[in-house]
């Protein structure tokens, strides 16, 4: 039994041993050969590689033993792996919804501040790079000439008012004169009627022989005089009425003069206000060139002004613009202030 087992399991090694001995020796002494066969499996040269089938059968039980021995650790590892994969997906999905760029710059409008009137500068209460509010004084110009011009304009307005009042008084007087002339016309008409009656009566008496020719001629003359008196009264009435039209035309002219004087006064007031140069909106004074004693020409720049309203112009790739809409929130970082975060919104794309 022993020999058969050895031959079956170590066939190649036994063949090698047998090749080292001759056949007669085997026949003469069978015992030593049996000993060689018994020692052959222990030799290093007789080792053979294990079959892959046998190795795989040994590993499978080992793996099944690890999972069965530590199920909690395996479950925790699987849970951590699933959490990592899910978190990675959410992070990638989150960051893809944001668009960023470092190709951006801050922009703002700037313009020159200049006076609308000329004169010597008397006050400059600001300095370079000073922040001012709306209505703060930037510079003052000597206003004495402009105050004098305003006083003259106000005097012209007063004179125009006085002229209108004078014409109104003349109109009142003229209306009274018209009324008097109308009364004279009425009186002349009444006298003319009586003179006509007297003339007709004495003419009839003269024709019938009951009156004298002298009386007839006298009352006829009185009739003609009353007719002339009526015509004169009527002409005087018309003249007074036309005088009213003339006074009304003069009044209209005086009203126009008043409007002109008022416009000149308003212009004088504006010119006086222009002697104070102020900021129209909050901002910062830069490149200040005004100085006390300097003669400022109308329209000449005194300083540059930068309003507080600023914005950021950012350049993005075309494929990024599809994700942007007006009003979307924006987070800004400035290299000069890395610790500060500025919030804003998209104004236009």
From TrEMBL:
<keyword id="KW-0175">Coiled coil</keyword>
<feature type="domain" description="Multidrug resistance protein MdtA-like barrel-sandwich hybrid">
    <location>
        <begin position="112"/>
        <end position="305"/>
    </location>
</feature>
<dbReference type="InterPro" id="IPR050739">
    <property type="entry name" value="MFP"/>
</dbReference>
<feature type="domain" description="CusB-like beta-barrel">
    <location>
        <begin position="310"/>
        <end position="349"/>
    </location>
</feature>
<feature type="coiled-coil region">
    <location>
        <begin position="150"/>
        <end position="191"/>
    </location>
</feature>
<feature type="coiled-coil region">
    <location>
        <begin position="223"/>
        <end position="250"/>
    </location>
</feature>
<dbReference type="InterPro" id="IPR058625">
    <property type="entry name" value="MdtA-like_BSH"/>
</dbReference>
<feature type="region of interest" description="Disordered">
    <location>
        <begin position="1"/>
        <end position="64"/>
    </location>
</feature>
<dbReference type="InterPro" id="IPR058792">
    <property type="entry name" value="Beta-barrel_RND_2"/>
</dbReference>
<dbReference type="Pfam" id="PF25954">
    <property type="entry name" value="Beta-barrel_RND_2"/>
</dbReference>
<protein>
    <submittedName>
        <fullName>Membrane fusion protein, multidrug efflux system</fullName>
    </submittedName>
</protein>
<dbReference type="Pfam" id="PF25917">
    <property type="entry name" value="BSH_RND"/>
</dbReference>
């Amino acid at each position: 039994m022993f020999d058969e087992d050895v031959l079956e399991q170590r066939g190649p090694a036994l063949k090698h041993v047998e090749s080292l001995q001759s056949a007669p020796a085997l026949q003469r002494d069978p015992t030593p050969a049996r000993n060689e066969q018994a020692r052959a499996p222990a030799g290093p040269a007789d080792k053979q590689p294990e079959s892959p089938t046998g190795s795989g059968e040994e590993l499978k039980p080992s793996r099944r033993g690890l999972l069965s021995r530590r199920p909690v650790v395996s479950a925790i590892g699987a849970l951590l792996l699933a959490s990592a994969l899910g978190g990675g997906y959410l992070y990638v999905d989150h960051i893809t919804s944001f668009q960023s760029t470092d190709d951006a710059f801050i922009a703002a409008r700037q313009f020159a501040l200049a006076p609308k009137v000329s004169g010597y500068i008397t006050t400059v209460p600001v300095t370079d790079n000073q922040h001012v509010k709306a209505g703060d004084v930037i510079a003052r110009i000597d206003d004495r000439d402009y105050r004098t011009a305003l006083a003259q304009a106000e005097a012209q307005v007063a004179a125009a008012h006085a002229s209108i009042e004078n014409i109104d008084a003349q109109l009142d007087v003229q209306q009274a004169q018209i009324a008097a002339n109308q009364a004279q016309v009425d009186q002349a008409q009444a006298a003319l009627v009586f003179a006509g009656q007297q003339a007709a009566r004495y003419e009839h008496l003269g024709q019938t022989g009951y009156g004298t020719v002298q009386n007839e001629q006298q009352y006829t003359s009185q009739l003609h005089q009353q007719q002339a008196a009526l015509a004169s009264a009527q002409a005087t009435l018309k003249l007074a009425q036309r005088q009213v039209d003339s006074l009304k035309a003069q009044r209209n002219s005086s009203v126009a003069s008043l409007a002109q004087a008022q416009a000149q006064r308003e212009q004088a007031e504006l010119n006086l206000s222009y002697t104070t140069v102020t900021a129209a909106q909050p901002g910062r004074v830069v490149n200040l060139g005004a100085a006390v004693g300097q003669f400022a020409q109308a329209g000449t720049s005194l300083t540059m002004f930068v309003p507080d309203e600023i914005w950021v112009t950012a350049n993005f790739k075309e494929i990024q613009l599809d994700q942007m809409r007006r009003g979307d929130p924006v987070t800004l970082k400035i290299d000069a202030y890395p610790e500060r975060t500025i919030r804003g919104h998209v104004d236009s794309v």
